[in-house]
Specification:
about 350 residues; alpha+beta; Aminopeptidase; Elongation Factor Tu (Ef-tu), domain 3; 2 domains; eight-stranded mixed β-sheet; 17 strands
Length: about 350
Amino acid sequence: MNWNLLKALVESHAVSGREEGVRGLIRKEFSDVGCTVSGDAMGNVIGYRKGKGKAKVMLAGHMDEIGFIVTHVDSDGFVRFQPCGGFDPRTLMSQRVYVHTNRGTLLGVMGAKPIHVLTEDEIKKPLKVTDYFVDLGLPGKEVGKRVEIGDPITMARGMEEMGDCLTAKSLDNRLGVWLMIEALRKLKSHEVDIYAVATTQEEVGIRGALAAARDVHPDVGIALDVTIACDTPGADAKDHITRLGLGTAIKIMDSASISNPKLVGELRALARKRKIKFQMEILPRGGTDAGAMRQVTGHCAVGAISVPLRYVHSTVETVHKDDLKASVDLLAAYLQTTTGKGYELAAAR
């Protein structure tokens, strides 16, 4: 497994709609694994590998990450912002961030009103995202010259090994992009035409995948994303969804899509045949690019291969190396064996 590539992907910076910080790296990697590479006005990167033309399989892994957009700079140089994607405000206290400007990247810290001066009523209220600001450690006039409304803000955090795991920001969902690259690197032959798409703006409404799917018009759409591993203290076993270290996850459904049952069965049978560790996933809240691809045509069978992830949408997202390997192995096996056909669902007789 190319962990250095994963590190480079997750340590890149690409808020939804401003994915230029990672797009060049992805284009290069797609080219290196034998794809013809193109892009579109949404910023999607499409890697095409021709098969025998029997069907089109679209892989979708979003390259954008949750972050913020500058909305105001006050006279003292403190920066206000709005979220670009869903954040849990509890994770923002005392974080370091980068503000990406046309004049370079500035390191800053997330600040809020100190607890020592809060009233009793304020102490009882949970912090909201709007209670935070970014302190760049510069005079107000200097900040005003360098920072503009609309500049993106990302979290300042690298990838580290932690036991058998990796922890970083934006594993959601540079993992999906990494999975398709590693699977294509492993893949020697395939009958289907493969469209590997690093999508944009997933975190703000699965927008890039919808645009790309309308252009590709796939027969099969497979989202590559993370899923919740709530296998931590305080959670009942029934609420775990998935567990770290137990293998890749084959999605049955989430709030944006229900996977084609024949595709689910094919993936499950293939995992058993190849002795690939897997678990079944039902996600009660949240969705993936599969939800966009299934909107394009009734002839597209959609599903998802998910990587179990702890502490989603934080700077310490955590994944198990074994689950990553299992996900690559399952995706490569599917692409190697599938004809992309036979997913029509007949009425019961």
